[in-house]
Amino acid sequence: MSQLEVKRLSLVPAQPWKNGGGVTRLLAERDCDWRVSLANVEANGPYSRFDGMTRLSLIVDGKGVVLRGAERVLPLEYLVPTIYDGSIDWTASLIDAPVVALNIMARTDRYVPSAQILHTEATLPPGSAAVILAGHSRCVVYGDDGTAIAIPPGQFLAIASVVKPMRVVRDAGSPIGNHPPVVALIESIENRASRSNFA
């Protein structure tokens, strides 16, 4: 766990969208298999299409976005993880004002993305990849060897591969506020299925 590096969100370079509708900050990725990013959606317009990818969006700042495509209407609400098909041509309409969204894209045939608000603590399962955003809180990641990594407010930690179960704990003395800590996970379909069957 000593090789893991906590980083400041503010130092992650912003990459402009091709359509000019916002910017994206890449937090972690694995080749063409999956990626986790934080996007500023600043204007109404089309979402990029990603064939063969499952998408998950979690609005962490702002009221939300409404996606429309293929005769479907899909609201992306504040602090509600929403999974949808990246192969559809979606058009986004902001609700009142720009938003910031945590986005996960993962190959549909290989991975299952998920995200949760960290109210107290969560467990990172072996075989998963994870990104922990501290938001306004302080979080601590505990390894099975007793080591711990603190994630201060405004920073994040990306873990490319969880070898053994790890605990993520929100400091009870830290505010959860309008920017709560978030745990994003990417698991293989096989790993997710085996955990579900065991449970």
UniProtKB/TrEMBL annotation:
Leader peptide range in chain numbering: none
Pfam families in UniProt: HutD
Domain of life: Bacteria
Protein name (database record): Protein Ves
Source lineage: Bacteria, Pseudomonadati, Pseudomonadota, Betaproteobacteria, Burkholderiales
